[in-house]
Structures are given as C-alpha cells and as structure tokens.
Specification:
Blueprint: E1 16-18, E2 21-23, E3 30-34, E4 41-46, H1 50-67, H2 72-88, H3 90-101, H4 105-125, E5 133-135, E6 142-149, E7 152-156, H5 164-176, E8 179-183, H6 189-201, E9 209-212, H7 218-227, E10 233-237, H8 240-250, E11 256-260, E12 265-269, H9 275-287, E13 297-303, H10 304-319, H11 339-354, E14 358-361, E15 376-379, H12 386-389, E16 396-402, H13 405-412, H14 417-423, E17 450-451, H15 456-461, E18 464-471
Parallel strand pairs: 7-8, 7-10, 8-9, 10-11, 12-13, 13-16, 15-16
Antiparallel strand pairs: 1-2, 3-4, 5-6, 6-18, 11-17, 14-15
Length: about 475
C-alpha cells in the first residue's frame, strides 16, 4: 500500500519551477525517482539542462533588482508565512521524505520541524541586519558600513536531509535579500518541489526562488551555476571531491563560496564519562539516518578501562534496532538511499575485517532489498583501516581503544573537555551530546570538510557583502 497525501497537489510530477511558472523540460525528458525501500516508482521529474538553468538565472537576476529593495521586515513576513505553510503541511512533507529518502517517518517528521526552524529563525533575523559606525584615524572622517545582499545565489543541495538542507541555504539567502536558483537533489526532488509550492503560497515574488531538477545532467547544471557571470554566490553540500571541482570552476568568476563537505568525525569516551550518556550519545551520533549524515561519528574512541563494557553495551543496543520500511511504525532505521551506497559500506567492513577488526553485530546486506545493510559494530579498529580515514556514510560503527589522553590526541586531534573544544581542528564540537545542529548555531567544517557557515548570524553573513561609506570634512583637525 502506497502512502497518501492529504494534499496531492504537493506531489509535483514532471515539472520544475522557473520564473514563477511550473514548467517541464524543453526536451520532454524525465528521470525516475524510486522508494529505496520498495523500489516502487514515486514519480518522474524533468531532466533540465543548462538551457533551463540559464532561464532560471536570468529570472533570478531580473528579480534581484526589485527584491533587494524590499525592507528586511517585508522579507521577514514572507519567510514567516512560508514557515506557517510548512508547519501546516508537515505530515505530507514527512511522507514525501520517507517515500523518496527512506528514513523512518518519525525521523522525517523531526526533519520537517528542523527545516521549518530555519525559516522561522531567519524570518526573525531578516529585520535585524545592522552595519557599524567607525571612528577613523583621520579625525575629519566618519565611516559607516552597510550589509547588502550579494546577489544571485546558486544553491546545490544533498539528498540526506531533503527539506532541511534546502531551508538552511534558501532562508538566509532570502533574508539577506538575495535571489536563488536551487538545484534539487536528483534522488529526492519531490520534497524540494513541495517546499517550492509552499513558498509560492507564502507570497514569494516571481523569479526570487527557482527550483531546477536533474539527475543525468547534474554535472552540466553544476558547471552552469559555477561559471555563469550572473551568479554571485555558490553554496554546495556534498562530497569533498565534488566540492573541489565546483570550487575550481567558480574560480574563473571569483564567486563567493560556501562548501559543506565530507567529514570523518571522532567520538571520544573517557573512563570518567557517564556511561549511559556515552552509549546514548554514540548511538545518536553514529546511527542517525542510518549513518548518512556528514556529522556522523565515523570513529568511536573509547578509553581502555571502559572499552570492553562499552563494546558489549553498544552492541546490545544496536541489536535492538528494527530495520525496515520507513512507513512501518516499528522501524527505527531505514534503507540507504540506493544500492550503490551499500557497496561502499560493505567494502569498508571487509577492509576492517581483513586488517583485524572483529564484527560484533551486522556486517552484511539484508534480504529486505538491495538498499538495506544491517547496522554494524566492529571492534579492535586500527588507524590503517579505511573507516579510520574515509567517510563511510552508512550504518557502521568502528570502535577504537586508547590508553592515554596523549594517545587519543594523536589519533583524533583532541584533548579533554574545554581543552578538547579549543584544540580541535574541526568546525564543531559536541560535549556530552550527540546532537549539535540548531538553526541558531553555526554549522560547518574546516580543512577538507569545507568552509563557510550555515545557520546562525554567521550563515546570514555568507549571503552578504559589506559596503563602507567614508564621509570627509566632518570637522576640523585639532592641533595639540
């Protein structure tokens, strides 16, 4: 039995949104979207090309000339109405997420609340964009700064949080006064299109937000967004390798960039930690969305005095998981987004076993379907294993043992509590919690995990430029 929407008009088939119109691809080509749990055909979406993408860019450029002149309060009201529309249609949006992404329905509902939070938070920030007054070194000069929208933004979003990753990028762009061309993920486009429909109902002006869909032409569209001289800013969430390509392409027009890329996050448990809290935190940090988040704990380091007890309790907790269709109320963990993802996960498991790791639970695919993989725990991990160096992006927890703080510093670039937080060469730190995402908090990485921040006042700044105005002759120079 397939899911039913209370409002069937939210399922947008064979159309994208360009310049205030729902339009098909000129070529008539479409691509299919399947439920990863059942392989049932959810529907088809237009396979747009660079031609339609250019139309969207031109529409956004034209709309920017008027939209950036709106007051922050006007933009605030639009975002607030969009938030209200999302909350009013939360159940349908959650169904769409589970249908095309596979995550359990309760997780999908939580994502909608999280996604709506960005609309609410940035609606409140839109009316509070301030500059500065600066006392210059020349006593006859006065300087003031304005924060202005950067312009037209090309946003490329991922499939793992198909609602939240759109609102986390689009909301601050609109709050700042920018206009947007958004490339929806080919794996999960229907959630993006439903959000677009709700934005229209909220009264978003024509051309301000355009939604492009494609699967086979994703590279072509990415190239268009990064090379068009009419695009002023590109924000991308995805793999480090793709981020490097987009960054290189953007260099020819010197675009402002935000890159939220792959991660290899450590989770460290010291012997004096609250044991139950450590287990609960590690479970959340590792297995949220079946391990398909960029902040999942890819490496779990446990101090030797607690190691055996931790491995046993952690394994028992994972054994209690119920893997299945996201629409089954008993399901705690759904499938991976596609069968190809299972291959990478399994290769990491095989590599760990070959190098001495011992599987305590899982370690294999499931008969439920090609996109399912059993939640897996591997003990006796070592630094030479692929899991220690590469992002797994799946339901596999590798548990390492360490003896001293100095040892784990070398392994994970950490020390302890505040010393940990201050010495980490990473963008975010969670202390006594496995959940670190919040609309009010800056989200982002360092080094090859990317740069720029999403969420918070810093996320708003990513879509702004600073203009300085200097006034001369404001007074006579004093002689001392």
């Amino acid at each position: 039995m397939q899911p039913k929407l209370q409002d069937p008009s939210l399922l947008k088939l064979n159309v994208g949104f360009i310049n205030d119109e729902w339009v098909p691809a000129r070529s008539g080509k479409t691509f299919e979207v399947h439920d990863p749990a059942t392989r049932f055909l959810v529907g088809t979406c237009p396979e747009f090309t660079k031609a339609e993408t250019n139309e969207a860019i031109l529409a956004a450029r034209d709309a920017f000339s008027k939209f950036h002149l709106q007051t922050g309060r006007q933009r605030s009201r639009i975002l607030r109405r969009w938030y209200d529309e999302v909350m009013a249609n939360a159940d349908d949006l959650a169904i769409l997420i589970t249908w095309e992404n596979g995550k359990p329905l309760n997780d999908a509902k939580a994502e909608i609340a999280y996604a709506a939070g960005f609309l609410e938070w940035f609606s409140e920030e839109a009316a509070r964009i301030y500059g500065d007054t600066i006392q210059g070194s020349n006593p006859t000069h006065r300087m003031i700064t304005y924060k202005e929208p950067i312009g037209v933004c090309g946003l490329i979003t991922p499939w793992n949080f198909p609602a939240a990753m759109i609102t986390r990028k689009v909301a601050p762009a609109l709050a700042a006064g920018c206009t947007v061309v958004c490339k929806a993920p080919g794996e999960t486009p229907f959630t993006a299109l439903a959000l677009m429909e709700l934005a229209c109902r909220a009264g978003l002006p024509p051309g301000v937000l355009n939604m492009i869909t494609a699967l086979d032409n994703t590279i072509e569209i990415g190239h268009m967004l990064t090379t068009s001289p009419l695009i002023d800013k590109v924000s991308f969430t995805g793999s480090t390798n793709v981020g490097k390509i987009l960054m290189k392409q953007s260099s020819y027009t010197l675009k402002k960039l935000s890159m939220e890329l792959g991660g290899n996050a450590p989770f460290i448990v010291f012997e004096d930690a609250d044991f139950d809290a450590a287990i609960a935190g590690a479970i959340i940090a590792k297995f949220r969305s079946s391990g398909q988040t960029c902040v999942c704990a890819n490496r779990i380091y446990v101090q030797a005095g607690m190691y055996e007890r931790f491995v046993k309790a952690f394994t028992e907790k994972v054994k209690s998981f119920k893997v299945g269709n996201g629409f089954d109320a008993a399901t705690t963990h759904g499938p991976l987004v596609q069968a190809r993802a299972v291959e990478k996960v399994d290769s990491h498991v095989r590599d760990a076993v070959k190098k001495g790791g011992k599987i305590t639970v899982g370690g294999h695919g499931l008969s439920l379907g090609p996109a399912f993989y059993a939640p897996t725990v591997i003990r006796d991990m070592t630094a030479d294993m692929d899991i220690a160096r590469e992002e797994t992006f799946g339901p596999v927890a590798g548990i390492f043992s360490f003896t001293t703080e100095e040892e784990v510093v070398k392994l994970a670039n950490n020390t302890s509590i505040f010393r940990v937080a201050e010495s980490l060469k990473i963008g975010m730190v969670g202390v006594n919690t496995g959940v670190i995402s919040d609309p009010a908090s800056p989200f982002g990485g360092v080094k090859e995990s990317g740069f720029g921040r999403e969420g918070s006042k810093y996320g708003l700044a990513e879509f702004q430029v600073i203009k300085t105005v200097t006034f001369g002759g404001m007074g006579k120079t004093l002689k001392i």
